[in-house]
Design brief:
3% helix; 20 strands; globular; mainly beta; two-stranded antiparallel ribbon
């Protein structure tokens, strides 16, 4: 395989695969992509909830989603990437004004040209940025694996330094694809009444690195500067492993970048410890800081979604237990926040013939308002 194509595949695997990718090996050792130029997914699902203080006493969403993409070398070192996602869903509640409506949605999530030379890969157009390398500006996915947002601009990744991946990007526009309600979403292009716009002009310069020089340790750092508003943010983390124990610490600081609260500056710090017992893992973690700050690394152990009040530094803590049993993945988790709000849930999933089936349940109590939710999905990826 040509070196340029290999680097392009590595860059695509790390920078453009979507979602939060846990870095456990050096970036340069990422596995090669599948031989097929095309990839995609199709799925169906349903969500039932009791929303608490909302007007309806129950709410049910159901629908189908699909993703189709291509990444192909069209000339020596030059690649073309494109991806679309879409589907349809319906909703039923006990409020007549919102009963039984269906929405179709769709969107162009990627369209870019990439070029690889020496140890550098560049992409221009619309692309993804995963949270593994970029803690504050990342694509993110919903319950069904659909992308919440992608970015218009340019991004470059370089692996010249030993055990180090360095990246830099200019983001002219943030394209919001998903306005989710517990999983399903409507695309703003086809449903303008559901959201005010399809994109936000950002003009953000970002850069970062990830280093694996130390044994079983990943060091990640990134910085961001919004040229239109002259504010900035920095974020970083250290993830390491000792025998059967994983440790992670990290934090982020902002003087207005990516923060919608009332504080002039905001910060959040967090950490987790994970113990492995064969096929079972126990993770315990916590955070302290401005809860509405968009730092996603320790989302499972933050005040986020627990009635947080912007402009207040608070703590939250939680635990998660996961195990494999006869081909089933079982999970249980809970989070408790400083205000007394709490939530807990369980999940079960299994993959059969390439189709992933998953069901989960969540109970949440925030300010004496109890909400419950059950979600189910079946998704096939190719």
């Amino acid at each position: 395989m040509k070196k340029g194509l290999l680097l392009s595949i590595v860059a695509s695997t790390v920078l453009f695969a979507g979602g939060d990718i846990a870095p456990v090996q050096p970036v340069a050792d990422a596995p090669a992509a599948a031989s097929s130029d095309f990839y995609g997914a199709a799925g169906v699902g349903a969500i039932y909830s009791k929303p608490g203080k909302k007007p309806e006493t129950y709410r049910a969403d159901f629908g189908a989603v699909a993703v189709l993409g291509v990444s192909k070398e069209i000339f020596s070192g030059l690649t073309l990437g494109a991806e679309v996602q879409g589907g349809t869903f319906g909703q039923v509640t006990d409020v007549a004004a919102t009963t039984n409506y269906a929405i179709e949605f769709g969107g162009l999530t990627q369209l870019n040209l990439g070029y690889s030379f020496c140890n550098t890969a560049i992409k221009v157009g619309r692309f993804e940025i995963p949270g593994a390398l970029s803690p504050l500006v990342s694509t993110g996915t919903d319950f069904f694996g659909l992308k919440r947002r992608t970015y218009d601009g340019a991004i470059a990744v370089n692996t010249d330094l030993a055990d180090t991946t360095v990246w830099a990007a200019y983001v002219h526009r943030i394209v919001q694809h998903a306005n989710t309600w517990d999983g399903f979403y409507t695309d703003p292009i086809l449903n303008p009444t559901k959201t005010s716009s399809t994109a936000t002009v950002a003009k953000v310069v970002a850069a970062g690195f990830q280093n694996t020089s130390f044994a079983d340790t990943v060091i990640t750092a990134a910085g961001y500067y919004d040229t239109s508003k002259s504010n900035y943010a920095v974020a970083g983390s250290i993830d390491t492993k000792f025998s059967d124990t994983d440790l992670s610490v990290g934090g982020a600081y902002s003087n207005g970048f990516g923060y919608k609260g009332t504080l002039a500056t905001a910060y959040i710090a967090g950490g987790t410890i994970t113990q492995h017992f064969g096929a079972t893992t126990l993770k315990i973690g916590g955070t302290y800081g401005e809860s509405s700050f968009g730092y996603a690394k320790y989302t499972d152990f933050t005040y986020h979604d627990l009635g947080s009040v912007a402009g207040t530094n608070v703590w939250a803590a939680g635990a998660a237990l996961n195990t494999d049993w006869s081909g089933y993945k079982l999970g249980a988790w809970g989070t408790y926040a400083q205000s007394g709000a709490y939530q807990a849930g369980v999940s079960i999933s299994k993959t059969v013939s390439g189709i992933n089936y998953k069901v989960d349940y969540r109970y949440r109590n925030v300010a004496a308002a109890v909400t419950q939710r059950v979600r189910a999905k079946a998704v096939y990826k190719f």
